[in-house]
Amino acid sequence: MSHEAASASDGAGPPGVPSDPDVPSDPDVPSDPDVPDLYARMSYLRAFEERADSLYRQGMIHGPVHLGLGHEAIAIGAASVLRHDDYSIGTYRGHAHALARGAPPEAVLAELLGRAGGICAGKGGSMHITSTEHGYYGSYAIVGAHLPIACGLAWAARIRHTSQVTACFFGDGATNIGAFHEAVNLAAVWRLPVVFVCENNWYMEYTPIADVIPVALPAADRAAAYGLDRIIVDGNDVQAVRRVVGSAVAAARGGQGPSLIEAHTYRLKGHSAADGGAYRPADEVARWRERDPLLRTRKGLLQAGLPAAALDEIDRQARDDLIAMTERVLAQPAPDPATAWTDVWDDGGWQWRN
Ligand SMILES: Cc1ncc(C[n+]2csc(CCOP(=O)(O)OP(=O)(O)O)c2C)c(N)n1
Ligand SMILES: [Mg+2]
To answer: 304 lies in a domain?
Structure first.
């Protein structure tokens, strides 16, 4: 979005203001959620990730699990301004992005638990959640590898004249990968309809991003190199995310090219569920806990007059739903070993072909 500066300052505005007139209206975007609805969606993601964390600790999930706890406002805010047929694509920290686009939670949970009813038939696991039916074109374990794929999705939409936009989510660490620079450059030169969203949680695994970049902000301070605006948003404020990503999506759909947005956030736990995150200073963790996206939205809703009991009920329903869901998923069989080689290609086959 090189046409105008559209930035929201970090920490902008109190959360929980009931209406958001700044989000550009697009008749094809499915709904215009109010703040309680956004809260409910974030609450569900929170309950899902806490359930996944607990199941991992009980040894019921095999393979790594990277939780999006603390990142909920980015997934929900961004998905709320996408059209049903828009594309999104993310990293191994991808449960929230798939769920936010409408992937069925039971199939995502079954995937984590390696069950036949999993969204990838139980053969992909946490790091590879994909649901093309819901516009979510996959979770990628190779840092930065999916940014060029986002360009491919956007280019396909351009060739087909469908006006679909691609939202591409990645971490601060990905900005040190060559593919980040190649993809953002290509998107800028070809004016591709991609909205790049850097979820800056200030760490790449166990290393603070500040230790490995020569600028203060990994994405925003590099945007000028590609002729793009410096866009920073408080990634823990769901309405700010809606506003900023909404403007970028509208610009991309209107033929004004890509945007590079840096959303500031923090992971509430370690890099993966196996990591206690002990390398992070306690006062830093405490400061960010105060900025927890759910607590902030909740505070705004309470100030706007919503009873605490109504919000507690939303949280309780999400937790109860996931407890019952876990029972059903655990009753499912594991994938049939005979299917190990199927679904390698999109026609269901596996044999190499030229
Ligand atoms: C190309 C590549 N290099 C290294 C790794 C190992 N690795 C996995 S996650 C990660 C950190 C990435 O940090 P960031 O991009 O900030 O995303 P976050 O995990 O914070 O969401 C690294 C280095 C990898 N998966 N791929
Ligand atoms: Mg990071």
So the answer is: yes
Taking the centre of ligand 1 as the mean of its atom positions, its distance from the CA of residue 75, in whole angstroms, is 19
Q: Is residue 119 in contact with ligand 1, taking CB distance under 6 Å?
A: no
86-112 pLDDT per residue, tens? 999 999 999 999 999 999 999 999 999
| Angle at the Cα of 294 from the Cα atoms of 288 and 298, rounded to 5 degrees | 120
User: Encoding tokens for residue 338?
Assistant: 């005979």
The sign of the CA dihedral 115, 117, 118, 120 is positive
pLDDT band of 33, cuts 50, 70, 90: confident
Would residue 13 count as lying in a domain?
A: no
Atom of ligand 1 nearest to the CA of 204: 13
**What is the mean predicted confidence (pLDDT) over 244-255?**
98
- The alpha carbon of 216 and the centre of ligand 1 are apart by a number of angstroms equal to 19
| 8-state DSSP, 101 | T
- The parent domain of residue 241 ranges over 35-332
| Domains: count for the chain | 1
Q: How far is the CA of 170 from the centre of ligand 2 (A)?
A: 8
The number of the ligand nearest the C-alpha atom of 97 reads 1
Token pair belonging to 153:
């999705």
